[in-house]
Amino acid sequence: VYTSVMGQALQRAAQWTSAKGGSGGKLEFTKLNEELLNSIIQYVDGFGAKYADESKLVFKKPLTWQTTVSPDAISAPGLEDRGGDKISEAKADKDQPLFSIKRDGSDNECSAMTMEYCEQVLRASGDKKMIEIRACLEANRDPVANMLGERFATVEGDDNSIFRFIEEITKEIEQLAKQHAENEGNTEKQEEIEEKKLVLKMRLILLRLDQQLLNQSIAQITKDVRLTPIMVDGEVTILQELSGDDERKHVLETIDFWGDGYIFKNGCRAPPQRQLHGDIAYIEVRPFDGNMLYITANTSGYYLNKGPDNRGDMNYEKEGDAYRELVTLLKDKSAHFTEMIDKQEFHLKVQEKDDYMDARRVEEDDDDRESTAGYRPDRSKQKAEEDSKDKGQKQKAQKKKKLEPSLKWKALGMEEYQEPDKRETQKLKKKKTSPRMKTKTPVDAEDSFSESSTESEEEEEAVERRSETNADLPSEYWQIQKLVKYLKGGNQTATIIALCSMRDFNLAQETCQLAIRDVGGLEVLINLLDTEEVKCKIGSLKILKEISRNTQIRRAIADLGGLQTMVKILRDPDKDLKCLAAETIANVAKFRRARRTVRQHGGIKKLVGLLDCPIVSATSPEADKDAEVARSGALALWSCSKSKKNKEAMRKAGAIPLLAKLLKSPNENMLIPVVGTLQECASEPSYRLAIRTEGMIEDLVKNLKSQSDELQMHCASAIFKCAEEKETRDLVRQYGGLDPLVSLLQKTENKELLAAATGAIWKCAISPENVTRFQELRAIEQLVGLLNDQPEEVLVNVVGGLGELAKDPPNRMLVRKAGGIPPLVNLLTGTNQALLVNVTRAVGQCAEEQDNMVIIDKLDGVRLLWSLLKNQNPDVQASAAWAICPCIENAKDAGEMVRSFVGGLELIVSLLKSDHREVLASVCAAIANIAKDEENLAVITDHGVVPMLARLTNTVDDKLRRHLAEAIARCCNWGNNRTAFGREGAVAPLVKYLKSQDENVHRSTARALYQLSKNPENCITMHEAGVVQPLMKMVGSQDEDLQEASAGCIGNIRRLALANEKARYS
Amino acid sequence: MSVIKRQDLAKCSEKLLKRKECKFEKQEIEKLITMFANITGGLNNKLDRTKFRDILHISFNMTDDILMDRVFRAFDQDSDNYLTHEEWVLGLSTFLKGAQDDKIKYCFIVYDLNGDGWISREEMFQLLKTSILKHSSEEDQDENIKELVELILKKMDHDHDSRLSMSDFKQAVEAEILLLEAFGPCLPSPKLRDAFLQELTQEQGKF
Q1: Of A7, A647, A807, B202, which is least surrounded by CB within 10 A?
Q2: Which residues does the UniProt record annotate as the domain EF-hand (chain B) (predicted)?
């Protein structure tokens, strides 16, 4: 089996998963690797026939691995059966037999020292050859070194071992020849040389295979662009081998081709008419978690289809994205599959996909992207150029360089380096028609070729250094490198010494953090988490917890699969360990992909589990520990709760009652993460409801009075979000929460706290009862005092609060007296849209009072409001238009003022073209006010207001109907506008408004109908639309306005009828 | 109960129970003494080094020869190269149930190879000799271990006299409990310790 081979090919071309370290590496599960393994199998099989002598060459060290072959299956001359184990009689030296295979539980351990025996095991493994060779190569990362000795170990850079060896042999032969001349030949020496020659020959044979494999993998990589039936069959077959009933062992329950099983000559299973679309086959997959998946294998990739219908006919429609590999698709669809496949070999791939998807979606964490963005294009370019080069030595060198896993690559997270590959393959696909493309920048190409390996490393360095402040490597770097060496090569004792020493560095410093990453320390630290040694795990987590404050480290930890391991540790019985893991997760889960990883690996549930700690009054070391576990759990959930799906997962895992319980804790350190989590989750209505009904408002209010600014801030922030609901606002008042909120306004130096407190005041002020209390607490004066010199986050809330409070008329006067109007008007010139919405509303409320209006007018506030109608944000437009209404109503000489805005009337009429309902309603209201002035009405009529209003009449929105009808009523008072409305078809729809539930709509509609009914044509239309009956009802209304308008309208209709009759009879 | 008379057992355990350094319950002591007698063949017989090492190996998975010898030394209070049943029980008391201070003292004794009250550079070198997997030549290996010793001294040698006193050791361990077994495992892992203790409290043990 395995044998042989291929130092360089394995090291470079084979895709190893990132979890190296010791012999723990796994061959990744890719087609490329499959091909490599296949070649090796073919090579080994029949090695003995080709090279009889070489196959008997005794290895320097045995190749040892866990085999699936049972000892019974192997029978060969010279094998001795010892209690079920088979051991060869021939010995290499003393105790070491040339071959042994021992039973060891379900797995057997096999150890071989010649190619001959390797070949035998491979034969005996029957159809499991692939598994066998994989196991062997995974256990022996550098088989050549085992076979021929350390001197031939695969090394980075130039490998001169073979030349040195030749030299040595030649020298010895010469020497021997000399001796021979002098005295008799020395047979022993002769034999030794013979053996050395054999070794050399073997080495050359292996080298040839190595080269062959590399060439093959290049060919493979270049052609691997579209799916073919063979590839599909291959992938499905492999997954079939990994499928079965055992949930703990298998990745899928079943996977098979869908359909009648007929295979066309071209290898496709899809019906011919579908082959035209590129379909190759259909695959049905039953995962352990979830429904049957139906997958189309198309030449463009794998994607889900809609599955067969009741009659068994496939619905071929594509659902979702296409994937280049079946495994990646399944990983996206089945968490269990992902987990199991990770356990086997391949976990690097997921992340790769992950990141790839992330990059395509718009990331919410920008920092997530930045590192890849920088050099991806260069690399793909480089690769494209590479591919356009001729084969042969040069290409091999290139390839080598490309795949070389330097420390840096690994430290960066392999996916970042593999990803370009992927992109490129896609790129290549597009270019398939002209595979030997000329590069666009030949100079560049030459550059990147000439000095391949150093060049690429430099590029790498450049990427690295971008983020570093000083270009010279600091001394810590070397010291840390040394410590990592001990971590890698030491036993538990040395590891712990190294871990403790590492903690003496200033781990809060970026230089040290990055140094650990750059020298490959992160992998080792993360690998330590997978060991059984509690002490090593604790030591490692203590370091990870510190350095994960760095964003780059976080990403690297996630890339290396650290989150999965830490999530597992959350179930550990050791409480210290749990705490550290949760705290580290809290640090790492600060970006979206990490949060998703935590969720997908069941981390949320486990973290919620940590919250469950008994609250005891007496303090004991044990109880303190429990509390500490809960606190760290809350910290991690706090980080995780920034994703919507995680909030949902937390709720389902029962986090809410546990958080409610912890909220009773007297301990500030506990409360901060708990309230932090709550306020984060309060963006979801389900949490808001729960916070209210689980009685958490009382505790939140209580902690508003805490000594800790941070805690106060989170409490205020939670109330801010929850107070969207009336019941909550009432509870805040009932528990006396308004007083501490107002007193927080004193903390002007802490802006975050101020923003949260003012936000809470704003939302609480929506309830009139709260407004009264705020009045008593003199909140208005204090809020007005905050209108100057505050950051926008605070201002938005302050102004929002003032806007709500000013709904109560006495407060409008208070705002004026406190000097609030000038700063408010001043804020109208700002650019922050959230702020503008609130400011316009507040100014509008203030303008309801005449005295305030005088000041606003003097400060030219109406002009400012008007210019906001040009803002591109519809919310700002609407809010400005609403604010304009009271201004026009209350300003002296309003008509004159409006006319003085050049182009203002045209602007507002043009807003009737908006798609935004609120904008339309507010503009209608403004137009109704503008139209009170006859001259202005004339102008807007000229701007075509009538047809534009008429066009809106079909709306069903009551708010718009109300203001639209009002505007129509007002606009009737000019020229032949009444007739025009009739002509534009506005009348009949208006009649329908009378069926609305909203009395305000009735009132304005009746008024409009009354105005329109002054035109006889309109009367006829109305009558035909059945206006009389509803109007009759409205005459009986309590509302005098409505009564009068309805009566007037009926009167007009009646008069027309009478006039008609009269005309007929006379 | 064949090897040992009921009343002897009771007497011995009573006596040990009164020692304040003994942290076991009566039942546990009896079990331990029985175990002792079963191994040695009698209450007043003594346990030799090889048998003791077998126990360390089987029950606590210890493998390091030097350290197992040192553990024996730490148990063997009168340095006669044999353990009496009292030494056995009292030694295990620290080994399994010792408070942090006791364990610090115990570990220090284990690591102080020549018993002169200091852990010297040479002793550290000796203890750490096998802690790094052989990669390179002999000299490199020695060099690596020397560096490791320097790391330890930097971390633990507070009075800078190039050796560790008991107070150095104590101070360092109190600051970082992970350093308790700084020179190699000489205490049971929590898992094996709990398993052993559970065995003691059960009526029918494996011994």
Answers
A1: B202
A2: 63-98, 99-134, 144-179
Is there a contact between A858 and A880 (Cβ–Cβ < 8 Å)?
Answer: no
A783-788 average pLDDT score: 90
CA neighbours within 13 Å on the CB side: how many for A164? 6
At residue A93, the pLDDT reads 66
- How far is the alpha carbon of B131 from chain A, nearest alpha carbon, in Å? 5
Residue A46 CB coordination number (10 Å): 11
Alpha carbon distance A678, A376 (integer Å): 40
B195 inside 8 A of chain A by CB: no
Q: Give which of A21, A27, A207, A45 is closest to A118, Cα–Cα.
A: A45
Mean pLDDT for A836-864 is 92
Q: Name the least confident of A137-141, A496-500, A927-931, A1038-1042.
A: A137-141
Residue A773 pLDDT > 80, yes or no?
yes
CA–CA distances in Å: residue A939 to residues A886, A900, A903, A923: 21, 13, 11, 16
A504 contact residues in B (CB cutoff 8 A) = 154-155
Per DSSP, chain A holds a count of helices (H) and strands (E) of: 60, 12
Please give the Cα distance from A84 to A71 (Å, whole number). 7
Residue A543: half-sphere exposure toward Cβ, Cα within 13 Å? 34
Phi, psi of B44 (to 5 degrees): -95, 0
Tokens found for residue A769 = 């009862």
Q: Minimal Cα–Cα distance from B127 to chain A, Å?
A: 10
Helix (H, G, I), strand (E, B) or coil at A389: coil
Report helix angle A1016-1024 to A999-1012, nearest 10.
140
Q: How many CB pairs under 8 A join A and B?
A: 61
pLDDT at B2: 55
Band (A276; pLDDT cuts 50, 70, 90): confident
Q: Where is A754: in which H helix or E strand?
A: helix A751-764
Name the pTM for this structure: 0.60
Q: Are A681 and A639 in contact (CB under 8 A)?
A: no
Side-chain half-sphere exposure of A460, counting CA atoms within 13 A:
22
The alpha carbon dihedral of A464, A467, A472, A476 has a sign of negative
Asked if B82 and B46 touch (Cβ cutoff 8 Å), the reply is yes
Question: In order of start, what are the domains of chain B with their CATH numbers?
Answer: 6-99+189-199 (1.10.238.10), 100-181 (1.10.238.10)
Query: Mean pLDDT across the stretch A602-613?
Result: 91
Contact yes or no for A496 and B179 at CB 8 A: yes
Q: What is the C-alpha to C-alpha distance for residues A480 and A513, in angstroms, rounded to an integer? A: 10
pLDDT at position A570: 93
Which of A151, A488, A491 is most worth mutating to test chain B (most B CB atoms within 10 A of its CB)?
A491
Nearest-10 Cα torsion for A181, A184, A188, A190 = 30
Q: What's residue A470's pLDDT?
A: 47
* In contact, A738 and A773? CB cutoff 8 Å: yes
Binary contact (B151, A490; C-beta < 8 A) = no
What was the pLDDT predicted at A326?
A: 84
Number of helices and strands (H, E) in chain B? Answer: 10, 4
Tell me how crowded residue B143 is: count the other CB atoms within 10 A of its CB: 12
DSSP per-residue string spanning A58-91: PPSS-EEEEESS-GGG---TTEEEETTEEEES-E
CB A278 within 8 A of CB A298: yes
User: What are the backbone angles phi and psi of residue A326, rounded to the nearest 5°?
Assistant: -60, -40
- Contact list in A for residue B133 (CB cut-off 8 A) is 489-491
Question: Do residues A541 and A576 touch, judged by C-beta distance below 8 A?
Answer: no
Question: With 90 as the cut, is the pLDDT of residue A578 above it?
Answer: yes
Lowest mean pLDDT among A101-115, A916-930, A1025-1039, B137-151: A101-115
Does the distance separating the beta carbons of B176 and A497 come in below 8 Å?
no
- Containing B82, the helix (H) or strand (E) segment is strand B82-83
